Amino acid sequence: MKTKYFLYVVTVLFLVSSCKPEINDFTPESGSADLTSYVAVGNSLTAGYADASLYASGQKSGFASILAQQFAYAGGNGTFKIPMMPTEDGVSPRVTPTGLYFTTKLVIGYSTDCLGNTSLAPVPADPNPDQAKLAQELTTSVAAEGPFNNIGVPGVKVGHLLAPGLGTLNPYYGRFAENPQTDALIGEAAKVNPTFFTLWIGNNDVLGYATSGGLEAITPMEGPAGVGFAASYTAVVQQLTSMASSGAIANIPAITSAAFFTTVPYNPIVLSEQAMVDALNAAYAPYNGAMAQLKLPYRIKWKLGANPMVIADADMGIPVPQLNIRQIEKGELVLLTIPQDSIKCAFWGTQKPIPNQYILTSKEIKKIENATDVFNKFIKDKAVEYDLALVDFNSLMVTIATKGLVFDGIPFSSAFITGNLFSLDGIHLTPQGNAVVANYFIDAINAKYNANVPKVNISDYAPVVLP
Fold first, then answer.
1. Could you write out the DSSP letters of every residue in 64-107?
2. Model pTM above 0.85
3. Where are the domains of the chain?
4. What is the pLDDT of residue 1?
5. Which of 3, 48, 106, 429 is the most buried (most CB within 10 A)?
């Protein structure tokens, strides 16, 4: 009996020990990628621009900086130099009729509108900044602190990466270029002897058109390097792959899904009195009559409740300029930059048509979508041709905008301020948004190079900071 009991105990212990789950320690590995020296090439998204400005903590919490931290666990040399701004308030130049005007980043604060109503809204960190001080902060050279691993520059398009003397036109590059009058931005990459690169470029080639309401041009696909998208992008990838043995390139996200384009509704004109409805309908009766005579379908009609705004639309092609107006259609987009006080107190959208620089019509949206699709197909082809990891941010942006996503228990959407993804300018990312982007880069890199770069905990990074 004792022997049988002993054998029973041994058997049970064996079974218990054999059924115990194994604990596999996560071992960071670079796989076939060489992460020793990393260079990040791109525009404002790579630079860490946020809240309508470039500022110190935004640069530190940009996706490229996060990636560098994670690469250090899997063979990276731990060096990732950024051309840091000397201020937390940030600096952003604006072209005005009287010249350059410098602004600071946006923060959440109290704002009073033309009706005397006070509410929380994005406001400048410094509403009356010292212009000389901000100009000095933006233009003082930090080239001696280089070379830099993050060479993302706000405002650049793909062709700009190849342009000698870009530093004389773009102060964000001029401040860290050794020779602003002659240097090309892509040449900065070689200075850190990169073994791995990320390239996220092309957004501004479409975004400039979108944020101007269709007034600026989309970069043409054809043309020589420095002009056409295809030749420029190819030249950039050729140069980077001649320096580094591995890399990841990202495509262009669905731009019109950003909060900048989806926050202001198309029908913010709320009429609460029938007398107001009748007065506006009477005012537009001659317009409606003219459209009927021209046998065109446009009519401007008002009712109690929410109404679409009246907009200017030169694409209507009517010979009489003042008749090139109509009510905006559902699905067309109003830019976040539209002056809200003008709608509330200056009769924009009712008595005065909204200028076209604040609107994206259906025709303009289609043009943006077509260009994005063409550019993204080309980027995908280059990833295959040069055997690089491809990060599909276009699909990610569409999913977040239409369905929302949850990462590490944190919900993300394209909603302004509350969506966790977009900073206060409605286009660039929050620190949490940058962490999401970094993890998508890591997923693509791990899959392509059979690597094991650890992902970041998104909750370690901040969303929009509320007072």
1. HHHHHHHHGGGT--S-------S-SS-BEEEEETTEEEEE--EE
2. yes
3. 38-96+130-262+364-460, 269-360
4. 41
5. 48
